[in-house]
Amino acid sequence: MPAPLTPEIAAGVLSLMGSARTWEKPSWTKNFGATPQDIAALVDAVGEILDGSVLTRDELVSAIVAEPRFHPLEEQLRSGWGALLKPLAWQGALCHGPADSTSVTFASPARLIPAWKGIPEPDAAAPEVISAYLGAYGPASPETFDAWLSRGSIRKTTLRQWFSDMGDRLTEVDVEGRRGFVLTEHADALATTAPAQSVRLLGSFDQYVLGPGTGDTALLSAEHRAKVSRTAGWISPLVLINGWIAGTWEIVDTDLIVSMFDDAPAPLSELQIEAAHLARAVGTAPLTVSAK
């Protein structure tokens, strides 16, 4: 079974993401206007501001820019993309807090999460994070892992060393000419698992596709990638047939409309069963499936 995303594993993920030190690159400073020194100062300032507090983005940014040195960063701090907040999260200065109506809130993980141990060193965190990833998405290569983790920002030598250091905890396999790693403890079970026949509806940004990435042609034909990975980072709701991304879907009133790729016929009876599950999950009226 894949490892759950516990606070300990989440802290490890943050450690590995932060190890890329992307905010120290000149191109990052050019794009977002903050120097490495600004980020270090923000980590300290946000740590003090969120000590015992839960604040909305507006409240947090207003508290930050009350200090004159941060005035030039206000626009980026208020941006919905959160570019300046990400390095703070990677270093353990903030995390999402409890929901406040429709407003996102931020809190200190040290105050919000019981027994929070802080951000571990990357080399110590890597084995558990890699194990958690491969337990969910293996077989996978180091490059696929890094595409999920940091969009390819980790040094290749560091990445390969992390995998190498895991020794016999990992087994390299070949699947139809694609080489990758699985957890050794899962290797025998995976080798004897028979393919399953299934039709599934997945929501937007589902981890099934975000884990390996929309560029993985074992899941999604390259010619249809633009229909799944959309403008402004949007990931479409998906139709899966036997694990393969075969189309997208949308809800219009009480109709669930599927758009199959390559003019393939829509398996309407199986999709109607899935639509019933979907309607219950989102609390809508019964949905009727149709194909474009």
Largest sheet: 5 strands, mixed
Which secondary-structure class do the elements indicate?
A: alpha+beta
Q: Identify low-pLDDT runs.
A: none
Strand content: 15-25%
Question: Helix amount, in percent?
Answer: 40-55%
| Topology order in helix (H) and strand (E) letters | HHHEHHHEEHHHHEEHEHHEEEHE
Count of extended strands: 10
- Per the principal axes of the C-alpha atoms, what is the gross shape? globular
Question: What is the chains' assembly state?
Answer: single chain
Report how far the terminal alpha carbons are from each other: 37 Å
- Strand line-up of the largest beta sheet: 6-7-8-9-10
* Count of helical regions: 14
Mean pLDDT, as a whole number?
Answer: 93
User: C-alpha Rg, in Å?
Assistant: 22 Å
Q: What labels would you give this structure?
A:
292 residues; alpha+beta; 5-stranded mixed sheet; 3-stranded antiparallel sheet; 16% strand; globular
Give the arrangement of secondary structure elements:
Layout: H1 7-18, H2 26-32, H3 36-49, E1 55-56, H4 57-64, H5 74-78, H6 86-90, E2 95-96, E3 105-107, H7 109-112, H8 122-137, H9 142-150, H10 156-165, E4 170-175, E5 178-183, H11 184-191, E6 199-202, H12 207-210, H13 225-228, E7 238-241, E8 244-252, E9 255-260, H14 268-282, E10 288-291
Parallel strand pairs: 9-10
Antiparallel strand pairs: 1-3, 2-3, 4-5, 6-7, 7-8, 8-9
Helix pairs in contact: 1-8
